[in-house]
């Protein structure tokens, strides 16, 4: 089997699938949209570009961006109330099919739990299956920082989450799907990585992925092929 066929077979027989969220499950980058909403879009966008260039660690970049935005509780609530969730086409159907097959589905993100839990609820994913960064607030609702002990706040954090999931649940065929370098870096310990370019194509990720798809329909089709084989 070719490397791509190996990944395809692992996906078809997976007992656990972990999805990145920003630019994968949803079409937007949550932190950039929140920054825009809070009137700090351009400053944060510039910092995001620097971070992508590898000039600072993930945690440093996260801290600097949040120090610029400093979102308070009421801004987060207003953002959630007024900014609709833009799910990537095909993701509701794919998650539904995976659940029907008895596959555990997780959202593993370097974004914010308060923005990602509504996405999980919309997809029927239990919020206990969300691994993301927690924002901290003072009693008056003002921004107080983020939980630096959360694995997803650090470089290599997604790999730490996946290793923990495998240890706790004994998953044998865990697949990570995402658009970014931090997703590709999570395999291993993930048994396979599928690169996703349906919203943004990152050439480095495309090069590293044995199987690279640009729509969730490709993943749905691969499962449909297996189902037809099973019936025969």
From TrEMBL:
<keyword id="KW-0378">Hydrolase</keyword>
<keyword id="KW-0479">Metal-binding</keyword>
<dbReference type="GO" id="GO:0036424">
    <property type="term" value="F:L-phosphoserine phosphatase activity"/>
</dbReference>
<dbReference type="InterPro" id="IPR023214">
    <property type="entry name" value="HAD_sf"/>
</dbReference>
<dbReference type="InterPro" id="IPR004469">
    <property type="entry name" value="PSP"/>
</dbReference>
<dbReference type="InterPro" id="IPR050582">
    <property type="entry name" value="HAD-like_SerB"/>
</dbReference>
<dbReference type="Pfam" id="PF00702">
    <property type="entry name" value="Hydrolase"/>
</dbReference>
<dbReference type="InterPro" id="IPR036412">
    <property type="entry name" value="HAD-like_sf"/>
</dbReference>
<dbReference type="GO" id="GO:0005737">
    <property type="term" value="C:cytoplasm"/>
</dbReference>
<dbReference type="GO" id="GO:0000287">
    <property type="term" value="F:magnesium ion binding"/>
</dbReference>
<keyword id="KW-0460">Magnesium</keyword>
<feature type="active site" description="Nucleophile">
    <location>
        <position position="20"/>
    </location>
</feature>
<keyword id="KW-0028">Amino-acid biosynthesis</keyword>
<keyword id="KW-0718">Serine biosynthesis</keyword>
<comment type="similarity">
    <text>Belongs to the HAD-like hydrolase superfamily. SerB family.</text>
</comment>
<dbReference type="GO" id="GO:0006564">
    <property type="term" value="P:L-serine biosynthetic process"/>
</dbReference>
<feature type="active site" description="Proton donor">
    <location>
        <position position="22"/>
    </location>
</feature>
<comment type="pathway">
    <text>Amino-acid biosynthesis; L-serine biosynthesis; L-serine from 3-phospho-D-glycerate: step 3/3.</text>
</comment>
<protein>
    <recommendedName>
        <fullName>Phosphoserine phosphatase</fullName>
        <ecNumber>3.1.3.3</ecNumber>
    </recommendedName>
</protein>
